[in-house]
């Protein structure tokens, strides 16, 4: 087996980036016509790495019927892991969290920031219909001080193992599932389908 030189690997990396950048731009243009999901839940991704976690959250967001996803200070990413969801889930872009906060609170949303150290846990929290969930950077956490936003609440996801936190895309999926579980009133035998196909009469949220 012939080993590739550093220059060859660099050239392949550049070519790969060029390919997915074109894919990103194409999907981003199609996102303009995206239709909000059937539930009023909103996801806010705060300064996450522009890597595979972002498109995976889009995929889960489409499955769980989120209204829209807000991206705060997140650059272009390869949308391939989203399996088409990036062009289907409405996206709002912000340079800083304050802009997303102002936009959503003006629309009557209660914002919840996920924090492993938060005393209030997800299962115990009351989740209003208009709930927006904020997820911070995979390593550095939130880009802001929650104390600067009095209307913001923090939540933790309980777990039994010694690890301090979950992968952000996994955490987002758990939160979305919990919201949908409470939003859909169906017999136990139908709950699995309900988690992916929310009730059709859920009211859309006006912009």
Write a compact overview of the structure shown.
The chain is of the alpha/beta class and about 210 residues long.
What would you say this structure looks like, in words?
The chain starts with 5 loop residues before the first helix and ends in an 11-residue tail after the last helix. Strands 3-2-1-5-4-6 form a six-stranded parallel sheet, sandwiched between helices. 33% of the residues lie in helices and 13% in strands. The longest helix is centred in the N-terminal third of the chain and has 26 residues. It is built from five helices and six strands. With 207 residues, the chain is an alpha/beta fold. α2 runs parallel beside α4. α2 links the parallel β1 and β2.
């Amino acid at each position: 087996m012939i080993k590739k030189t550093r220059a060859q690997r660099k050239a392949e990396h550049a070519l790969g980036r060029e390919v997915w950048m074109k894919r990103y731009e194409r999907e981003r243009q199609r996102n303009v016509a995206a239709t909000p999901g059937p539930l009023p839940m909103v996801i806010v991704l705060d300064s996450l790495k522009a890597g595979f976690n972002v498109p995976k959250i889009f995929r889960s967001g489409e499955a769980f019927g989120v209204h829209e996803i807000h991206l705060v200070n997140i650059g272009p990413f390869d949308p391939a892991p989203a399996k088409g969801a990036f062009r289907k889930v409405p996206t709002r872009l912000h340079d800083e969290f304050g802009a997303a906060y102002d936009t959503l609170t003006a629309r009557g949303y209660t914002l919840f920031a996920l924090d492993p150290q938060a005393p209030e846990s997800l299962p115990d929290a009351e989740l209003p219909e208009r709930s927006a969930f904020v997820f911070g950077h995979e390593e550095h956490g939130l880009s802001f001080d929650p104390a600067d936003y009095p209307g913001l609440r923090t939540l933790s996801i309980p777990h039994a193992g010694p690890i301090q936190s979950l992968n952000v895309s996994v955490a987002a999926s758990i939160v979305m599932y919990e919201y949908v579980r409470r939003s859909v009133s169906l017999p136990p035998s139908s709950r699995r389908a309900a988690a992916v196909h929310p009730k059709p009469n859920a009211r859309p949220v006006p912009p």
